[in-house]
Amino acid sequence: MSGMSGPANDDARVYSLEEQRAAREARSAGEQAEGRVRCTAVTGRGAACRNYAVDGQLCRVHARSAGEDGGSRQRNQPPRRQPGLAGPGGGRGGYGQGRTGTGQPAAKGPSGAVAGGEGATGRSGAAGSSGAAAGPGADGVRVGAAAGPGADGVRVGAAAGPGAATGEAGSGPGYGSFRWAETQLLQRGFGAAVDGLELLRDAADERFLDALRGLVGFLRRRVTGAYDIDEFGFDEDLTTHVLMPLLRPLHRSYWRVTSHGIEHVPPDGGALLVANHAGTLPADALITRLDVFDLTGRHARELGADLVFRTPFVGEFARKTGATLASGDDADRLLAAGELVAVWPEGFKGLGKPWRDRYKLQRFGRGGFVATASRADVPIIPTAIVGSEEIYPMLFDLRVVARLLGFPYFPVVAQMFALPVLGPFALLPLPSKWIIEYGEPIDTSILSGELAEDPMALFDLTDQVRDRIQQMLYRNLMGRRSVFL
User: Fold this and answer.
1) How far apart are CA 189 and CA 160, in angstroms?
2) What does the pLDDT average to over 357-380?
């Protein structure tokens, strides 16, 4: 505060309230003389808008709002969706033009506000030039649209009373809808809360509502027992309507997965999808399964190591999601049934790979997956996953601890060094940008007859699959801008 007491501040003049008011009025008069006028709209708090008018008598904000509600949308502005908690309409959770208690549609005034129609106990008021006058609804409560500035095109909220909750009387926003909540907040002077409501409305889009409806249907089928589990223990209903919706925010918003080449995955019939494995935890397997399902509607039945099914709770959960043991018998039966099967031949060698060896494929085993695809006469779909290496950068492998616990590896990841600062949040995976490429199918029909039993022929085709995936990884690594963008 010592800088405020220098000589430069000794000559500062203090203006009285009268002088400030006179200067403000003179400035406003000069602006009007120059042709600049203030906006004639009213804010959500009921005060006069102080912005300059740019479109007739309205400022940019209120002109855009009027365009959204009155149909005079500005050019190049995308249409704004007006969701309700249960869809459009005059019933609960929706809004828009409703119907009256006697089935007559509500009338609309010049301002765009919708007036309540004839209710069971009386008639609503007529819509005037500045808004709609509300009348008694089916239950004797005023449910019409509240009057407000209409001639200037300013967006006004329509206040629905309890009678609108049934969707039978009155009009305007449905009771419980987003527009109804916005109107209630504005009427009570909580204009700042409208921004939070807009974020909630953006989150509650069709995808959220579809997931919610799927969950409700899942619970109903669980109660009634109307669901099936196949011979491998795959619970398709649980996977589709509960587990995959939980993974979609990671796929869509956190890791921002982009994929190409999905046309190489056959829409039906058996096929073997072979991909690289990395990331300390098998998140790439889950995300790849979700990506394939969302793009093709098919479940990729993954083949897992025996350690997965020997682990308590994990093995049973893996069975329910469609995974099965990576054995020849189970894979043969799945492919013979026309299923899409996914395998990660690197196994734990790929998951437990140190950071210095990132995107360098490990051995693909002895070619067991090639022999399986050859016996079933199905194509192999090489798949390259970029981005999973960076979610948990593995710096060290504590092999002594891993042997004591019976694990294939015990990782020390970079996030562990931030535990003293961030606590448990430090162990969250990093938000890397993922790219998944599905390559051209590799025909296995060449391994027919005696070649199907020739180890060298199996090794040769296994190396071809591995080299194809390695080249796909290099190509996508060169094409991405950065790890996180």
Assistant:
1) 17
2) 91
How confident is the model at residue 117, as a pLDDT? 40
Eight-state DSSP code of residue 81: P
| DSSP letters for 364-432 | -TTSHHHHHHHHHT--EEEEEEESGGGSS-EEEE-HHHHHHHT-S--EEEGGGGGHHHHGGGGGSPP-P
Res 234 pLDDT > 70: yes
pLDDT tens digits, one per residue of 286-314: 999 999 999 999 999 999 988 899 888 99
Give the angle subtended at the CA of 329 by the CAs of 373 and 456, to the nearest 5°: 45
In one letter, which amino acid is 336?
Answer: A
Rg (CA), the chain: 32
Asked if residue 272 lies in contact with residue 343, where contact means CB atoms within 8 angstroms, the answer is yes
pTM: 0.60
Tokens encoding 196: 């939070």
420 burial (CB, 10 Å; 0-12 / 13-18 / 19+) is exposed
Burial annotation 306-331 (CB, 10 A radius, 16+ → b, else e): eebbeeeeebeebbbbbbbbbeeebb
pLDDT (tens digit, 9 = 90+) per residue, 71-80? 433 333 333 3
Q: What residue ranges define each of the domains in the chain, with the CATH number in brackets?
A: 23-75 (no CATH), 88-190 (no CATH), 218-392+429-479 (3.40.1130.10)
Residue 451 has pLDDT above 80, yes or no: no
Token pair, residue 117, equals 């129609």
Give the helix/strand (H/E) hosting 303: strand 300-304
Among residues 24, 20, 23, 61, which one has the least CA distance to residue 40? 61
- What is the rounded (10 degree) CA torsion for 251, 256, 259, 265? 0
